[in-house]
Amino acid sequence: MVGMGLYRFLRRRRAGFLASFAVAFSALLAYASMTGNSISIRRAVGMAFLAMLAGVLGRTYDMLNSLGGMVILLLWQNPFLLWYSGFQFSVVAILVIGIAGSSIQIRPQDGHGMSRSGKRINHVYGSLMVWLGTMPLVAFYYYEIPTYGALLNLLVLPLMPVLFLCGLAGGLVGCVNMGIARIILFPCRLILNLYDGAATLLLRLPKSGLIVGKPTLFRVVLFYAALLALAWLWKKFRERHCIRVCGMLFLLLLALVPGNRSPEVDVLDVGQGDGTFIRTEEGACLFVDGGSTNVKAVGTYRILPFLKAKGADHIDYWMVSHGDEDHISGLKEVMESGYEIDYLVMAESAMEDEAIQDLLALAEKTRTQIVPVKAGDVLRMKKSRITFLWPAGKQSEETGDGTGNVVKGSTEEAGDTYREYVSADRNDMSLTFVFEDANFRGMFAGDISSEVERILVEQYGDRTSEEQTPFLDVDFYKVNHHGSRYSSCAAWLEAIEPELASVSCSESNSYGHPHEETMERLREVGCEAFRTDKMGAIKLNINRERIEIIGFDEDISRCYAP
């Protein structure tokens, strides 16, 4: 706007092409330098340069050809820009405006100028196309889309010329007289406050950010292929509004249709802490713990983005093993962000813990329901269930009905009596449970020590028959207490017999986790253990035929029969 406006102003004052070009381009270079010379700025300045150069050389300017020339130049300087989000947004926005935006807009007929109603319609179409056209990239990098973004554009775009002109005039006058400049800039303050207020209001509306998950590259390519086809259709049938509307609705559905939601278990890399995401066969989203002692804002910058990338717009059940910071600090941040959690599941015996009390107060504020459980309770869903083994508590007379609701009751496998055990150590009172789904069994036991492990082996280890799998036998084991030598004793590992295990720990932790003695005991029972400090996040794809484990920081992908 500055460069081309100055160029046209000088041309109308009968300045020569070359002189107008030199003055305007010098202003653009100064602007680029003052604003950091980002990729988007370099692309815009380059395109303005080509537009003015076309006038100097007496040639016709074409926006898409100009964009193509700048893309080639920028990639020639740095090919890795192709994977840079700022470059992608900048290029795609111009492509959408140049191809789809121009195709969808109505044109004046019979040589007459555009009517006011036609201009308003084109403004709406343009706003919707900017919103729709960049939606796949927004979802790819931010995992959610601004539901009311198109409405906000309808307010923002018409006022931009006023904002720009007043801002430019105020900046120039301010070099001479600040008092007059403040008067000129007053409309800018009003407009910017209006923008801020409107954005804040829209963010408070329900579903202001629609979590859609990270789309695959194939889906992104498919979306833009469909957009190109619709641009051709809109251009051919320019007078038919129904074709425009139906085409945009088709693009919206294509962007919003959820991707693959197969069952999986993801052990997040949260440094020295714990955090595990579970998606069941029926599509329920669970989470176990969530915290860290050495990663700041782990809930804001690791757990929450991960959940959004998975397309999990809420968590059905969030299990809290105990109140240590390395297990709940991230959970607190997620709750404070406003992310929806239906139920917090925690040990009945931990309800008086001071750290848990803080969680309870936060849950009340966010309207998250609390489910206190004890040994013998079962949380039943349609195709999966969680059996709680520890710690003990007062017996409940409730029984589960398998309807998918939160249900409780004594398990037949565990019996009706539980060993009473009270410890001042939070770790030994950690919520312990077996998760079962899609022919998969996983053991989660927080930070319990070998003493508690031996109690559990004594309580549950011999509950089996010829037709029944041993009660403690599992496919996957989330290693207790980050691999401490004081956990995962030989008797415990022989009882649970896991094939796969994950150790959640930090590479720089001061405890020496995981201890070599623990890793050796895992190897002795034939269990292959994967560590987040070496592999980053660990993913298990689960189905009824196999379990595939993937490590993200190492090129590992292996399959196991459950």
Please provide a written account of the structure.
- This protein has 562 residues and is of the alpha/beta class.
- Helix content is 47%, strand content 16%.
- The chain is built from 18 helices and 18 strands.
- Strands 8-7-6-5-4-3-16-17-18 form a 9-stranded mixed β-sheet. Strands 9-10-11-12-13-14-15 form a 7-stranded mixed β-sheet. It has a two-stranded antiparallel sheet with strand order 1-2.
- The longest helix has 27 residues.
- The radius of gyration is 30 Å and the shape is elongated.
- The relative contact order is 0.06.
Average pLDDT works out at 86
Q: In percent, how much strand structure appears in the residues? A: 15-25%
Total helical segments: 18
Percent range of helical residues: 40-55%
Question: What is the number of E strands?
Answer: 18
Q: Which structural category do the helix and sheet elements fall into?
A: alpha/beta
Radius of gyration: 30 Å
| First and last CA, distance | 63 Å
Strand numbers in spatial order across the main sheet:
8-7-6-5-4-3-16-17-18
In short:
By secondary structure, this protein is α/β, with parallel strands linked by helices. The protein has 18 helices and 18 strands.
Could you list some keywords that capture this structure?
7-stranded mixed sheet, 9-stranded mixed sheet, 16% strand, elongated, 562 residues
Give the secondary structure arrangement, pairings included.
Blueprint: H1 2-12, H2 17-34, H3 39-57, H4 63-77, H5 85-104, H6 116-133, H7 135-142, E1 144-146, H8 149-174, H9 178-204, E2 209-211, H10 217-236, H11 241-256, E3 264-267, E4 273-279, E5 285-292, H12 298-309, E6 314-320, H13 325-336, E7 340-347, H14 354-366, E8 369-373, E9 378-380, E10 385-390, E11 432-437, E12 440-444, H15 450-460, E13 476-478, H16 490-496, E14 500-503, H17 516-524, E15 528-531, H18 532-535, E16 538-542, E17 547-551, E18 556-560
Parallel strand pairs: 5-6, 6-7, 7-8, 12-13, 13-14, 14-15
Antiparallel strand pairs: 1-2, 3-4, 3-16, 4-5, 9-10, 10-11, 11-12, 16-17, 17-18
Helix pairs in contact: 1-2, 2-3, 3-4, 4-5, 5-6, 5-10, 6-8, 8-9, 10-11, 12-13, 13-14
